[in-house]
Specification:
CATH architecture of the largest domain: 2-Layer Sandwich
CATH class of the largest domain: Alpha Beta
Number of domains: 2
Number of helices: 10
Oligomer: single chain
Radius of gyration: 20 Å
Strand order of the largest sheet: 2-3-4-10-5-6-7
Structural class: alpha+beta
Distance between the termini: 20 Å
Shape: globular
């Protein structure tokens, strides 16, 4: 079933439902609203592997005691252009929101700032955390260690690495910001879960089984592993991102990573990092954003291969989905709606209409 034929729900209504569910599970109301807003925003832009589809998992983890509902997020190391946050096992969305705000404040003063996190949790799509700085005239780069290992070292079979995403947000002038959000695997594991929820097969090249053959059934994902982008180069990227976002911060990496799909109790000690650059440190921001606009237009208007309808810039399709879904509502698969209705009954809250 295509997105055009799926049931749709307004972003505000979805965020309200998520907030009520998280609140009922034990998250303070103010924190629940922040997390719910970011989760609904993920679905709004089409990052459906990281939005409301994660709600049952989050609720299960909160109720099992795997998430600290009253974390004391604090700075444990700090200099003029850096800081390390300890998330105290709080919701990753809350920890990363604090990290982004701190990095932006420091970048305004120092020109550039790096803020790492430890004792955090899954925080949704990486692009959420580079978009805010890009809206305020800043370049942002985000790195994270994934919350389950789905990738072996190149040539190996033991899954010691995760999807370890990278995101970059670059502000433009009148054009949409250039926003790159990518896993270091061909596909993020959340996309595999979304395919399973929609009853769709995996494209060849996403996963292989332990005999090296293509794995196309998303319900059998446990029988194989994800493939890195660009072969050994993607493996190298996954390793480096993990070292920067995990090991550097004293967060989990390699065998220390907890599979939060299976273990709802053990703290994940997730590591993330955000780098923010204030454009004004390099001169008038308007000169930079005008140059970005021109480059974007040159790329979009460049000669296309036969059969190619349009050249897209990173983030443009998400920008278009945001616009379309804000008007028409966010499409939700019937199986996911059924699961959310069951969750509402379990929590004793009003179901999602």
């Amino acid at each position: 079933m295509s997105a055009d034929t799926l049931p749709r729900v307004g972003c505000d209504r979805l965020a309200d439902f998520i907030a009520r569910a998280l609140g009922s599970a034990g998250l303070p109301a103010a924190d629940a609203r922040i997390v719910a807003g970011l989760m609904a925003e993920a679905d709004l832009q089409g990052s459906d592997g990281h939005g409301v589809i994660r709600l049952p998992q989050y609720v299960k983890r909160i109720r099992a005691g795997g998430i600290n509902t009253s974390p004391a997020v604090r700075v444990v190391h700090e200099r003029a252009a850096m800081a390390l946050l300890d998330g105290d096992n709080g919701m990753g969305h809350l920890v990363m929101s604090r990290a982004v705000d701190l990095a932006m404040d420091k970048a305004r003063s120092a020109g550039v700032a790096w803020v790492g996190t430890r004792a955090s949790n899954h925080a949704g799509p990486a692009s959420l955390y580079v978009r805010k700085p890009s809206q305020q005239g800043m370049v942002a780069l985000y790195f994270a260690v994934g919350n389950a290992n789905h990738l072996p070292p190149w040539g190996g079979m033991e899954m010691l690495l995760s999807t370890n995403p990278i995101a970059v947000g670059v502000p433009a002038g009148s054009e949409p910001a250039v926003v790159l959000d990518m896993a270091t695997t061909v596909a993020a594991y959340g996309k595999v879960k979304a395919k399973a929820k929609r009853g769709e097969p995996l494209p060849e090249g996403w996963m292989i089984d332990r005999q090296g053959k293509p794995l196309l059934d998303p319900t059998r994902a446990d029988e194989g592993f994800l493939l890195p982008i660009g072969g050994h180069k993607g493996y190298g990227l996954a390793l480096i991102v993990g070292l920067l976002a995990g090991t550097l911060n004293g967060a989990a990496m390699g065998r220390e990573v907890i599979d939060f799909n299976r273990d709802h109790v053990t703290p994940t000690n997730t590591g993330q990092a955000i780098l923010v650059i204030d454009l004004s440190a390099f001169g008038p921001p308007e000169a930079f954003t005008a140059a970005v606009d021109q480059l974007v237009r040159d790329l979009r208007a460049s000669e296309r291969l036969p059969g190619v309808e349009r050249i897209w810039l990173p983030g443009e399709q998400s920008h278009e989905r945001r616009r379309r879904n804000a008007e028409a509502g966010i499409p939700l698969p019937a199986a996911l709606l059924t699961e959310l209705q069951s969750l509402a009954i379990e929590l004793g809250i009003e179901p999602l209409a």
